[in-house]
């Protein structure tokens, strides 16, 4: 029988994780949420959607390990004006299933997301990502700017600056020996003890033992590539992010991206976004205003 890094059986971990995943969807996402599993060359991708069928699409990409369910605080609010599609990354914890063709490079990631957008039958979408999801969203927009109507980057990592060494050092136990305890300890440190939603936090902890693929990492986009991007972009920084220096990231992004605007979510940390109640309300207000302003 296959085992995980902590020695528990893969079957038991999967059952526990999927049960926690479904609990968050049932308890936190609005009534009327739909679920679809779409084929791509890299495997099957789970998409959780909410909003009127004919509304403008908004695709949401979560940070690593967070799953698409983390957007529950945005789904009902943004679903009033948009058809919200929250996507589970292939190779990350979630209900997406990897196929025989692995995602190993940035071109693989952009081809995968192209296939997801094809399955959604959208030629132009608003695209929003948090953390690692923001890195993917930015790379995809550089790859296919004609497919992205508006781009929103929420406390983006590895897009305009590197991680703080202290953040990586604190994350190391969670990366080397993933467990519910190491996850909880890290999240408590980065959020300064903020009270996160218990159901989602339980899901995040069960994800520690979920079998995953090595995430695609790569260099930050070049200044030359960023200077040519003409897609309207909103960059929302967490004031107290421990992942990086938020003010420095915002300054660099504004300098490099000609069509970008930045704003700071007061009091937020990297991991209280996007779900922590006080931060989520401000996040929703900023995103909605950006999407509805022509």
Total helical segments: 10
Shape: globular
The succession of helices and strands, N to C, reads HEEEHEEHEHEHHHHEHEH
Radius of gyration, whole Å: 18 Å
Indicate the low-confidence ranges by residue numbers.
1-9
Please state the structural category.
alpha/beta
- State the separation between the terminal residues, measured CA to CA: 56 Å
Biggest sheet character: 9 strands, mixed
**How many beta-strand segments?**
9
What is the averaged pLDDT score? 93
Give a quick summary of the entry.
The chain has helices at residues 10-28, 72-78, 106-119, 132-143, 165-176, 180-190, 198-206, 223-227, 246-256, 277-292; strands at residues 34-40, 43-50, 57-61, 83-87, 97-98, 125-130, 148-154, 233-238, 260-265.
Structure overview:
The structure is a single chain. The chain has ten helices and nine strands. It has 294 residues and is α/β, with parallel strands linked by helices. Helix 9 (246-256) links the parallel strand 8 (233-238) and strand 9. Helix 3 (106-119) packs across helix 4 and helix 5 (165-176) packs antiparallel against helix 6 (180-190).
């Amino acid at each position: 029988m296959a085992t995980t890094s902590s020695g528990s059986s893969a079957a038991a971990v999967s059952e526990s994780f999927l049960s926690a995943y479904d609990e968050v969807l049932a308890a936190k996402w609005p009534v009327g949420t739909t679920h679809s599993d779409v084929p791509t060359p890299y495997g099957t991708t789970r998409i959780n959607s909410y909003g009127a069928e004919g509304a403008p699409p908004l695709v949401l990409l979560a940070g690593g390990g967070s799953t698409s369910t983390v957007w529950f605080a945005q789904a009902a609010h943004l679903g009033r004006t948009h058809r919200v599609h929250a996507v589970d990354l292939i190779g990350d914890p979630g209900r997406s299933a990897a196929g025989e063709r692995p995602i190993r490079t940035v071109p693989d990631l952009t081809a995968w997301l192209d296939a997801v957008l094809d399955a959604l039958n959208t030629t132009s979408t608003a695209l929003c990502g948090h953390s690692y999801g923001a890195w993917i969203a930015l790379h995809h927009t550089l790859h296919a700017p004609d497919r992205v109507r508006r781009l929103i980057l929420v406390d983006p990592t590895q897009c305009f600056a590197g991680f703080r060494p202290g953040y990586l050092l604190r994350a190391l136990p969670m990366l080397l020996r993933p467990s519910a305890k190491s996850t909880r300890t890290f999240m408590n440190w980065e959020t300064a003890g903020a009270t996160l939603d218990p159901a989602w936090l339980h899901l995040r902890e069960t994800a520690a033992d979920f079998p995953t693929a090595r995430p695609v990492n790569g260099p930050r986009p070049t200044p030359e590539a960023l200077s040519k991007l003409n897609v309207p972009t909103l960059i929302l920084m967490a004031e107290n992010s421990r992942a990086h220096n938020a003010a420095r990231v915002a300054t660099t992004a504004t300098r490099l991206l000609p069509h970008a605007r930045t704003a700071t979510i007061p009091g937020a940390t990297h991991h209280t976004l996007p779900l922590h109640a006080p931060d989520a309300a401000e996040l929703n207000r900023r995103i909605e205003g950006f999407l509805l302003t022509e």
